[in-house]
Write a structure and sequence with these properties.
There is one protein chain. Helix content is about 20%, strand content about 35%. By secondary structure, the chain is of the alpha+beta class. It has one domain: 60s Ribosomal Protein L30, Chain: A, CATH 3.30.1330. The strands form five sheets. It has a seven-stranded mixed beta sheet, covered by helices on one side. A six-stranded mixed beta sheet has the order 6-7-8-13-9-12, with helices on one face. The protein has a four-stranded mixed beta sheet with strand order 1-5-2-3, with no helix packed on it. It starts with a strand and ends with a strand. The mean pLDDT is about 95. Bound molecules: 3-(2-carboxyethyl)benzoic acid (3EB).
Length: about 325
């Protein structure tokens, strides 16, 4: 089987069987799909209709189901799932805020599904939460999310550093906690960025529990090598650099991505090497008014590679842009 990722519109011919997709837009006026679908409730900037949907395909037979609120679809070796959790269903307790409990419950459900399906290896996670930089119950909501996510990894006896998925955690205006994930039956190879402190080692000034993600990961769906670069921002060491300067943040972020591409190339099994121009990129832009600046700054740096811009909040109030990227190479024996 092969896994493929493609932007698509209604006219795009299907290169295989859909595993699932994400639909970008504030009012995605689309019918429910037969496959798992994550609504990314955020405006597409400099709109390109072909990029409103990003779909994962496989050419093998698929199976699907619903489990504890997760809609999932799988091939022999990879599984895509989507789950949304309304924090209003979780009361605040002495242990934490509703969002913390919703995050923990959500991840515990995902881990139960993955064990039951024999695809325990979480490769890539897309996390979207409302009002990510707001505080309640004495803690920023992104930090509440981190507490719940971390506790679910602990409860499931999973590592909380090292062998952890590539991810993004992005803020939207409203809606439930929404998580999409790709998992598989083979372990990932986690990659860290020598210019940055590992996120799972962030000091306590960024919250009581560090975020649980790798800077990037290589994963191996049958006969392929996938590179997932996590949401990457203008952070050096553990500190934000260039606050208030969106163009400089773009340059610093691409320097970080280039380092991760180098790290991937040190251990890659596929050829040719990964390159900035060979990845597909999605930039989350905090202020819609920065869209042109981001586009003009990134275009030459990314060597003409596909770039989609989405208006969304980043997990630190001083970050104006965050970029994630991916590529899938065939493995030839
Ligand atoms: C950072 O480098 C930016 O919490 O899953 C990027 C990617 C970020 C993933 C997550 C957070 C996450 O810390 C924020």
């Amino acid at each position: 089987m092969t896994l493929q990722h493609a932007p698509c519109n209604a006219d795009t011919p299907h290169p295989g069987e859909p595993l699932g997709d994400a639909v970008i837009g504030l009012t995605p006026d689309l019918p429910d799909a037969a496959w798992p679908r994550q609504p990314l409730r955020a405006p597409l900037l400099l709109a390109n209709a072909a990029h409103r949907r990003e779909r994962w395909f496989t050419d093998g037979p698929v199976q699907q189901g619903h489990s504890e609120g997760i809609h999932w679809r799988r091939s022999a070796d990879a599984l895509y799932g989507v789950i949304e959790q309304h924090e209003a269903d979780f009361p605040a307790t002495a242990q934490g805020a509703p969002l913390q409990h919703a995050s923990q419950a959500l991840y515990e459900r995902v881990f139960r599904l993955l064990q039951a399906q024999g695809t325990p290896h979480l490769w890539r996670v897309w996390n979207y939460l409302a009002r990510i930089n707001d505080a309640s119950h004495g803690l920023e909501r992104y930090r509440q999310f981190n507490l719940g996510r971390h506790e679910a990894f602990v409860q499931a006896r999973r590592e909380t550093g090292g062998q952890v998925p590539a991810a993004c955690a992005i803020g939207v205006a409203h809606g439930p906690l929404s998580v999409a994930f790709l998992a598989g039956n083979s372990p990932l190879v986690p990659l860290e960025n020598p210019r940055q402190v590992s996120a799972w080692h962030y000091p306590a000034q960024y919250g009581p529990r560090a975020p649980t993600f790798s800077r990037a990961a290589l994963a191996y769906p049958c006969d392929q090598e996938a590179l997932f670069i996590s949401g990457t921002a203008s952070i050096v060491g553990h500190e934000t650099v260039h606050p208030g300067d969106v163009a400089a943040q773009c340059h610093e972020t691409v320097r970080n991505i280039a380092c991760l591409v180098d790290e991937a190339n040190r251990v890659r099994r596929s050829a040719p090497p990964f390159s900035l121009g060979g990845l597909s990129h999605r930039a989350y832009v905090r202020h819609a008014a920065d869209a042109q600046t981001v586009q003009h700054t990134l275009a030459p740096l990314l060597q003409g590679a596909p770039l989609v811009l989405v208006q969304a909040d980043i997990c630190r109030a001083d970050l104006l842009v965050e970029i994630e990227c991916q590529a899938i190479h065939p493995l030839t024996a």
